[in-house]
Amino acid sequence: MKQYLKNTWDGIFTVLVGMKITFKHLFTPAVTIQYPDVKVALPERVRNRLYVNMDDCIGCDQCSRACPVNCIEIETVKSIPGDDLGITSNGKKKALWVTKFDIDIAKCCYCQLCVFPCPTECIYMTSVYEFAEFERSNLNYKFATLTDTEVLEKKANYEKMQAEKEAQKAAAAAKPKPEAPAAPAQENKTE
Residue 172 is inside which H or E element, if any? Predict the structure, then answer.
């Protein structure tokens, strides 16, 4: 009988300890945030989705080289002498067409190492943290502003310019060089 009463008391005591937490929260106001209408304020230095301002990108490829997981792919084509690519917001003149600038967010580890080496500060972390997708391929963001036909045109123009330079070099090499006049011989004077 003594063991029975002890077991009963232990059961009641355990329930009261558990209910203590329940009663404590029963009389405090709820702190539920009505997500997605209301969002949590993010810390100042939070790391989220990457964004690239292509108007400032000079195609230097430093962000891609700094990325530890190789989630950034950049392809560029040199401009030809008549092209005006413009200047960046901090005054750097552009010399390369950026034909491809892809970031695979599925691979990104949000380390922010790609942001710091950028000389024009065109790549940065945004405050957007919601980017769930049903297809993994939708996590590959394409930032290049040139269309496919423009990319092919820029590549063709550069190849044409390179072919013209090679032809000029070949013509210059095939052209006979005029012989230089012989220097007059110096007489040895003996004393």
Answer: helix 148-174
Rounded to an integer, what distance in angstroms lies between the CA atom of residue 76 and that of residue 85?
Answer: 13
Positions of E strands within the chain: 50-52, 72-78, 96-104, 123-125, 140-142
Q: Evaluate if pTM is beyond 0.70.
A: no
Q: What is the pLDDT of residues 164-182, one digit of tens each?
A: 888 888 888 777 766 656 6
Residue 141 near residue 103 (C-beta atoms within 8 A): yes
Positive or negative: CA dihedral 33, 35, 38, 41: positive
Tokens of 8: 């009963």
- Cα(45)–Cα(127) distance, rounded to whole angstroms? 10
Looking at this protein, which amino acid is placed at residue 169?
K
Give dist(CA 152, CA 185) in Å, integer: 61
Contact (Cβ atoms closer than 8 angstroms) between residue 75 and residue 154: no
Mean pLDDT, residues 136-150 = 92
Residue pair 71/114 in contact (Cβ under 8 Å)? The answer is no
Q: Give, in order, the Cα–Cα distances in Å from 107 to each of 73, 102, 130, 163, 177.
A: 12, 12, 16, 39, 58
Q: How far apart are CA 61 and CA 98, in angstroms?
A: 10
User: Could you tell me the CATH number of the domain that includes residue 61?
Assistant: 3.30.70.3270
> Is 188 a domain residue?
no
The answer to whether residue 15 sits within a structural domain is no
Helices (DSSP H) in 27-147: which residue ranges? 62-66
